[in-house]
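Q: I have two molecules that I believe assemble together. Could you output structure tokens for the complex as a whole instead of separate predictions?
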Amino acid sequence: MELRERYEEDLFLVRGALAWTALIAFCAALLLLPRAAPGYLLFTLSLIAVNSIIAVGLNLLVGYTGQISLGHAGFVAIGAYTAGLVMTKVPWPEPLMAWGVSWLAALSAAGLVAAAFGFLVGVPALRLTGPYLTIATLGFGIAIHQVLTNWDRLSGGRTGLFLPKLLFGPWRLGERQLYYVAIILAGLLVWVAFNLVRSHVGRAFVAIRDSDIAAEVMGVNLTVYKTLAFAVSAAYAGIGGAMLAFILGYLEPQLFTLFESIYYFSMIVIGGLGTVPGSILGAALLTVLPQQLAALKQWLPLVYGGTIVLVMAIEPRGLYGRWMKIKLWFKAWPF
Amino acid sequence: MPLPLLDINELTISFGGITALSDIHLQVSPGALISVIGPNGAGKTTLFNCICGLYRPDRGTVRFHGEPLLGFKPDAVARRGIARTFQNIELFLRMTVIENLLLGRHLHFRAGFFDAAAGSPRWRREEIRHREVAERILDFLDLQAVRDRRVGDLPLGRQRLVELARALATEPKLLLLDEPSSGMTAEEKDDLVFRIRDIREEMGVTVMLVEHDLKLVMGISDWITVLDHGLKIAQGTAAEVQADPDVIKAYLGETAIY
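A: Yes, here they are, computed for all two components at once.
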């Protein structure tokens, strides 16, 4: 094990030359990829970025703070429709539209509005624990879906909501540009998540998960931190939803059903609860898997359900937990 | 006599008809080390829970530094300088030892959410400062060897010590220890006595101790309060309490068999 000489070294997110090389290579690959990759691959990668944002946010709430949410598609929907409505209903002056202010505003609004809803859902969480909270969030997700389906004048109902093409100066953002926006945004939000979980805020989240009484006695304000966890998680979902709206260019309520909530939940369980990299692994796997299994579409819920049971039975710490074990094994090799 | 650090008057609390504490008066002066003893169900832990804000008493006052303490939530009480440990250890089991101690530093953080989210220099400076304090406490309690171990993997005696360290990390003025020696081996208990003395003498922390091990209590306490069925039945030095007929009755029963 490498020797650490200063307390500051405990705070580093990336340690050692090997890790830095891997990170830089990974980023370079992501940035150069559009030159070589076909369109559908970029689309898939953009979706992975979006799902990573949502999964990382969900993991902050479920994996770190221990507050189970089965209504996360509701927050994603709120973000997506907020972005859609800000783009279409706000009378943007021509220059603001042309210089991308409209969609940047839509993106921020999506995060903020979803965070506000997250805060509101977090308030009952102060009194509800375990299965009761799960049922409450489940109800929230279903309620949002119902509102979007039936409130035609807001959401366009089943006909859907079409988004205009995003502009930035002289460019219309196509598949390739949206890919860049998505991965840069995902990179930024993943970095923020890493910062949070190594800080006193993240420790307070985990403390609430492990023993809320002890957390409180140590001076962690449960009201503040539980609602904060919900708000942050919902903000991630909202931003992810807005990005999804940009990429698809079209929204309809069927994109945000209970099934999607379970889909996001499966990502973090399979990837690894309480880990940021695990969320990304899970998001990547569950974005690619349904595409590969397109023929089995109606069986997908069964596949997710079965996979969750398998992961829980074989490796409760998810893909990332397994990866850490493999890494440890190689470090200790040949002993 | 100096103004008491902790001043409890007429404290009464009942749960569904059972009076857990009845009209308790207790004054603890700064720098003291006092013990609360009593048979099972006497109300010792209930007393702690009332002080630290987990229970809301029906009647009475608790003053800390002359300021009322009742009605505040546990986190607000912690910020006023009261730390505690639990009878059934309440540690963050999936965190490492050092992370548990850093939780003790939580209430001293001034950096906000956005400082943490961006890893700002302000947050970084604070984090390093708090880590230094946590490391000093690890040294003080000889826990350096297990610094990076998951708390859940440690034996019970060590876990009690980590919980004590976490409470100390908050830099409390008053430390409430709820049966710190249970589950410890004889050697660990001897060590604990020295450590509690050190905490009082080197750190100047006032200590309130709830204990079952009477031998341990008798050796280190300035004075002892005895509770039984929610009532205070005796108070005094170790010798006085041991000779008190009410105390003997509470511990050994009404009539001698032989």
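A: One point stands out. Residues 31 and 180 of chain A are 8 Å apart (CA to CA).
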